[in-house]
Write a structure and sequence with these properties.
alpha/beta, Rieske Iron-sulfur Protein, FAD/NAD(P)-binding domain, 39 strands, disordered N terminus, disordered C terminus
C-alpha cells in the first residue's frame, strides 16, 4: 500500500493582455496602427491599447479559491470538471501541462468534459465547436464566443484554483474588438465593407474583422426585420420570440460600430464601379463585398397555392404563427426535409393531427440512408405523425379563403387547417445574374478556398456558395450547414485582410426531434454503403457512410461524443477505412482513441 500525500492545484484566471475589460483601458493610449492594403493603398486601423496590470483581478471580492486535486490525478489527455463552490472550470492535462478553461460550450451549454481532447483543443460533444485549451479561443463553430481561460499554478504538488466568480458564472468570453474610427465623418452611401445578408456567415465576418483590429466602416444589410438570430431554432423551437434567439443584443452592434440595415434588399451589384443598388433605389459604394444571402425556400406549384395559412418557415413570425394556428388543429407538412421533420416533431404534441407528405419512400434516405431513415420514421409514427409517402400535393382547397384540405396525387384528401412547406430551397442569387460574378448552373456562387469569387474584392459565404472541400479532395460542394456558414464568414474576413487563409473545416450538423438528436460529421454525398453499429430499434447507433473503401461521414444517436471524435480524426487529415470502422467503434467504447494521435491512415 502506497500512501500519496494530498496535493493541491492552483488555477487563477488570467485575462489576456488584449482581452482586458474597458475599465482597465488607458483613456489616451493607442497602439501602433496595423496596416493592410486595399488595391495597393496602405490603410491604417488601430487596436486600443491596454495597460499591463499587476493583478488581473481589478475587484478582489470577485475572486474565489478552492482546492481541486493531486497533480497525479490526471493523466495526459484527460479532462476533469472541478467545482469551485460558485461555479465550475474544466481542468485539462496535455503533454505534461495543465490548462483550465470554462467547462460549458458557449453555444448551447454542452459539458465539454464529455467532449474530445486532441492536439491542444477540445471539441464540443453536441455540435462540434472547438476551443484552444491554451487561450480558450474558439477555433471552429458553431457559436460566437470563446471560453474564459484560467491560469494554472502548481506549488509543491498541490493544486489550488483561483478564479473570477463572474467568469465562472458566465462561462463565455467575447474577444476584444476594434471600433470604427471617426464614423461620423463617413458618407452614408459609402462603406469600406458591405455584407449582404445578416445570417451566421455575415455576422461572423463582421465580428472577425473587428477582432482582427479592422476599424473602418462595416455595413450589413438584410431583408429581415430583425438583427441576426439563431435560424436553426425556427424549426426546433418554434415558439421562440426574436429577442430570445438573437445572436447578439442591439447594444453589441452599437458598441462595436457594426451597422445593420434591416428590411433592405439588394437588387443588383455593379462590380465595375463597386456599387450595390437596393430595391428602393438607394445606392451604396463599397471597397470589399461579402455576399451571404443564403437561400430561398421553394414554394408549391399546385392548384390553390395562394390559399391562406400555407407557410414556408422563414422568420420567427412564421414559426410563431404556425404554432398558434396548429394548436389542437390539423397540420399537413409537405416535404420530409430537415425543416419538415423538425416542424412535425415540434407540433406532434400540440396539434390534433400531423400528416407528412413526401415524394421519397423513406425520410432522409439520400442523406442518412434507408435503414436510418426507417428507424427515424418509426419513431415519428410512434409519436402520432402519419406519413403519406411516394406522393405529391395536387391541390390545396380552401373555405372562405383559408386552407381546408390538401389533396394528394394518390387521391387521398387530408383535412388541414395549416400547411408547412419544406420541399427544399434555391440559392438567393438571382440579383447577381448580370453582375459578372461566377454563378453555376444551379445558381450557386462559385468561390475558392479563401471564399473569393472570380471578382477581386468580392467574397461569398454560406448556403449560397459552392467551395472546394478539403475533406473530399477539394471537390466543389454546397454545404448548407449552420456550422459551415460560421466558418465561411471567418475565412472571408481574414482574406479581406489579406491573411491568405484557406478553409479546411469538417462539416458538422445536428437535428433534434422528440428530445433526441442525430449528430453528423463529414460529407456523405454519393455514399455507396452504410455500416451500422449499435441498435437502430433502440435509437442508439452509429452509422458510417462509405464511398469505395473510405469512410466519408458518420452519424449517431445516443452515442456522444463519437461524431466529434470522428470529426477530429478527419480534421487531422487522417482516413478511416471501411474495414477499420469496427475497430474505431470498439476503440471508442473502450476509450482507446489512438486514432487521434497516430499518423497516416
Amino acid at each position: 500500500f502506497l500512501f500519496v500525500p494530498a496535493v493541491e492545484v492552483k488555477i487563477e484566471v488570467v485575462i489576456p493582455e488584449k482581452e482586458r475589460s474597458k475599465e482597465e483601458m488607458s483613456p489616451n493610449g493607442k497602439a501602433s496602427p496595423l496596416i493592410y492594403k486595399v488595391n495597393g493603398t496602405a490603410r491604417h486601423y488601430h487596436l486600443e491599447e491596454h495597460p499591463i496590470a499587476s493583478n488581473p483581478y481589478h475587484n478582489p471580492k470577485d475572486v474565489v479559491e478552492a482546492s481541486v486535486c493531486h497533480v497525479k490525478d490526471l493523466e495526459n489527455g484527460q479532462m476533469r470538471e472541478v467545482d469551485l463552490g460558485c461555479g465550475k472550470a474544466l481542468l485539462i492535462k496535455e503533454s505534461g501541462e495543465f490548462h483550465a478553461v470554462g467547462h460549458k460550450c458557449p453555444h448551447y451549454g454542452a459539458p465539454l468534459v464529455k467532449g474530445v481532447l486532441s492536439k491542444g483543443r477540445v471539441r464540443c460533444p453536441w455540435h462540434g465547436a472547438c476551443f484552444n485549451i491554451g487561450t480558450g479561443d474558439i477555433e471552429d463553430f458553431p457559436g460566437l464566443d470563446s471560453l474564459p481561460r484560467f491560469q494554472v499554478k502548481i506549488e509543491k504538488d498541490k493544486v489550488y484554483i483561483r478564479a473570477s466568480k463572474q467568469a465562472l458564472q458566465t462561462q463565455r468570453r467575447t474577444k476584444m474588438m476594434a471600433k470604427c474610427i471617426s464614423l461620423s465623418n463617413y458618407n452614408l452611401s459609402s462603406t469600406n465593407v458591405l455584407i449582404i445578408g445578416a445570417g451566421a456567415a455575415g455576422l461572423v465576418c463582421a465580428e472577425t474583422l473587428r477582432q482582427e483590429g479592422f476599424s473602418d466602416r462595416i455595413v450589413m444589410c438584410t431583408m429581415d426585420r430583425h438583427l441576426p438570430y439563431d435560424r436553426p431554432k425556427l424549426s426546433k423551437s418554434m415558439d421562440s420570440h426574436p429577442e430570445q434567439i438573437a445572436l447578439r443584443p442591439k447594444e453589441f452592434f452599437r458598441s462595436y460600430d457594426i451597422e445593420v440595415l434591416t428590411e433592405m434588399q439588394v437588387a443588383a451589384v455593379d462590380i465595375k464601379n463597386k456599387i450595390a443598388v437596393f430595391k428602393d433605389g438607394f445606392k451604396m459604394e463599397y471597397n470589399k463585398l461579402l455576399i451571404a444571402t443564403g437561400n430561398t425556400p421553394k414554394a408549391l406549384s399546385c392548384k390553390g397555392k395562394e390559399v391562406e395559412n400555407v407557410f414556408n418557415i422563414r422568420t420567427p413570425e412564421d414559426a410563431n404563427r404556425v404554432v398558434k394556428l396548429a394548436t389542437s388543429k390539423n397540420v399537413v407538412i409537405v416535404g420530409a426535409s430537415f425543416l419538415g421533420m423538425e416542424v412535425a416533431a415540434y407540433l406532434a404534441e400540440r396539434a390534433h393531427s400531423v400528416s407528412l407528405v413526401e415524394l421519397e419512400e423513406v425520410p432522409f434516405k439520400k442523406f442518412f440512408g434507408e435503414r436510418v431513415g426507417r428507424a427515424v420514421m418509426k419513431m415519428f409514427e410512434s409519436n402520432r405523425v402519419k406519413f403519406y409517402m411516394q406522393t405529391e400535393v395536387s391541390e390545396l382547397r380552401e373555405q372562405e379563403g383559408k386552407l381546408k384540405e390538401v389533396v394528394l396525387k394518390s387521391g387521398k384528401v387530408l383535412r388541414a387547417d395549416v400547411c408547412v412547406v419544406g420541399v427544399g430551397a434555391v440559392p438567393a442569387t438571382g440579383f447577381l445574374k448580370q453582375s459578372g460574378i461566377n454563378i453555376d448552373s444551379k445558381g450557386f456562387i462559385v468561390v475558392n478556398k479563401m471564399m473569393q469569387t472570380n471578382i477581386p474584392g468580392v467574397f461569398a459565404a454560406g448556403d449560397a456558395v459552392t467551395f472546394p472541400l478539403a475533406l473530399r479532395n477539394n471537390k466543389k460542394v454546397n454545404v448548407p450547414h449552420w456550422q459551415m456558414a460560421h466558418m465561411h464568414g471567418r475565412i472571408a474576413a481574414l482574406n479581406m485582410l489579406a491573411h491568405g487563409m484557406e478553409i479546411s473545416t469538417v462539416p458538422y450538423l445536428w437535428t433534434a426531434m422528440f428530445g433526441k438528436s442525430i449528430r453528423y460529421a463529414g460529407h456523405g454525398e454519393g455514399f455507396d454503403d452504410v455500416v451500422i453499429q449499435g441498435d437502430l430499434d433502440e435509437l442508439k447507433f452509429v452509422a458510417f457512410y462509405t464511398k469505395s473503401d473510405e469512410v466519408v461521414a458518420v452519424a449517431s444517436m445516443n452515442y456522444d461524443p463519437i461524431v466529434s471524435k470522428v470529426a477530429e480524426v478527419l480534421a487531422a487529415g487522417r482516413t478511416i477505412r471501411k474495414r477499420d470502422h469496427c475497430c474505431f467503434f470498439l476503440s471508442f467504447r473502450t476509450g482507446d482513441m489512438s486514432w487521434l494521435t497516430g499518423k497516416g491512415s
